[in-house]
Design goal:
With 223 residues, the protein is an alpha/beta fold. Helices cover 39% and strands 22% of the residues. Strand 11 and strand 12 form a beta hairpin.
Length: 223
């Protein structure tokens, strides 16, 4: 699971990232324009969003991505605690609203609840596609009843494909999601790992479900 945390108070931002990174992959932004840029990549499972931000406030960021059709769950995390602000946050497309100061355990619980409601995180953390089952907690993979071995990155790649089955994913989206914005590899690594993943799935026939969309990226589709 990959989160985007947006907070302009840098010490608080760092503490939130440290709190969450044992359970999630975490990207961060400290102003509204950077937050909007990262949100538009559509690679995150949820966004933790401050309201009072430089360049563009959190309400504006969320209204913009909702107008553009992005349905990423958003949790507002802010010191603005009036009823009017809560209503505004939810009406602008927010999914939850947590007021500072907050307890770390509650923040993590609310994020998990958002992910469950959106379908990104099931109660048993299992992702399924046809005869493929990925057990997120243990990172075990069963294909047609038979366990197989994948590397950590191969697992994340397959998980991302399954979560977005039927949708075209660009190479840039895959790279940013699986390797991260600050990776020291190049985008060419996506083709290499896709080749190896297909090889692992070939004995079961599922390699053909990973379609190459020429000049764009890939799509998982059995049709």
């Amino acid at each position: 699971m990959r989160l985007l945390v947006v907070e302009d108070n840098l010490p608080l931002l760092e503490s939130i990232v440290q709190l969450l990174k044992d359970e999630f992959e975490v990207d961060q932004a400290s102003d509204g324009e950077e937050a909007l840029f990262l949100a538009r990549q559509n690679i995150h499972d949820a966004i933790v969003l401050d309201v009072m931000l430089p360049e563009m406030d959190g309400f504006q960021v969320l209204k913009t991505i909702r107008k553009e059709g992005l349905t990423i769950p958003v949790l507002f995390l802010t010191a603005r605690d009036s009823l009017e602000d809560r209503v505004k946050g939810l009406d602008s497309g927010g999914d939850d609203y947590l007021v500072k100061p907050f307890q770390g355990a509650e923040l993590k619980a609310r994020i998990r609840a958002l992910l469950r409601r959106s379908g990104s995180l099931t109660t048993n953390q299992t992702v399924k596609y046809r005869g493929i089952e990925l057990f997120g907690k243990e990172r075990d993979i069963i294909v047609d009843g038979e366990p197989i071995k994948l590397t950590a990155k191969q697992y994340e790649l397959l998980e991302y494909l399954i979560q977005n089955k039927g949708a075209i994913l660009t190479k840039e989206q895959i790279y940013d999601r699986v390797w991260g914005f600050d990776s020291d590899t190049t985008i060419a690594i996506v083709e290499v790992f896709m080749h190896h993943l297909r090889k692992k799935l070939e004995p079961f026939g599922y390699h053909a479900d990973i379609k190459t969309i020429r000049g764009v990226g890939y799509m998982l589709d059995e049709k």
